[in-house]
Structures are given as structure tokens and as C-alpha cells.
Amino acid sequence: MWVVRLTDKQLEVLRALLRAQEHLGPALQRSLQALDLARWDELPEAELPWAKVADAARRQGVSEADVVWDMCGSRSEPATPVVKRRPRRKGKAASRKPSR
Predict the structure, then answer these.
(1) Which of 6, 13, 24, 43 is the most exposed place for a label (fewest CB within 10 A)?
(2) Contacts 24+ apart (CB under 8 A), 43-50
(3) Per-residue pLDDT tens digits of the chain, which is 100 residues long
């Protein structure tokens, strides 16, 4: 997979080149659809704390990609909601005296 950033003019030219083809196979048709959907300028710039990532990778003896993967999987909230247990009520059985 390739990732490229194109100016609006470059994107327009690439679309025109694809549409000018006599026969668009399935791969080129999907490529044209992807170009119609792709708008990099609408996405926010992603920033990672690279110093923290590199330090964690060095300490753990893993690659920076592994650290980023771990960071993406960590969540501030637990995966399952915390269930509060209701306090147990004393029933009639608990207040009875054991029979002999």
C-alpha cells in the first residue's frame, strides 16, 4: 500500500488520466472511487510524543511500532463497565437462630 499527498491539481489530473482509459478494470475502478473519497485536507494532523515512544521502545527492547500499537490499544476507561454490587440485605433466614 502506498500513501501519497496530492495537491488538488494533481488529484484532478490523476482522476482525468484514469477516466481517459478505454477499459477500467476492477482495481482501477476502485482506485478512482478511492480518489473521489480521499480528502487529506479534512483530516487533522496526527502527532505522537515521539520522545516518549522512543524511550519506551528502548526500555522495553521493542520497536517504536510496537509501542505505538500498545498506545492505540490502551484506553482511559475499562473495556467492560464497572458493575457496582448492591449491598446484601439481611433477610429472615439470617436473623433466625440455628435449630438444634
Answers:
(1) 43
(2) none
(3) 677 778 889 888 988 998 898 888 888 888 888 887 776 556 666 678 889 989 999 999 998 888 888 887 766 655 455 667 777 777 665 555 666 5
Closest CA to 15 of 37, 42, 44, 40: 37
8 Å CB contact between 63 and 54: no
Could you tell me the sign of the dihedral formed by the alpha carbons of 71, 72, 77, 78, in that order?
negative
Tell me if 13 sits within 8 A of 6, measured CB to CB.
no
DSSP the chain: -------HHHHHHHHHHHHT-S---HHHHHHHHHHHH--GGGSPPP---HHHHHHHHHHHTS-HHHHHHHHHH--SS-SSPPPPPPPPPP-HHHHSPPP-
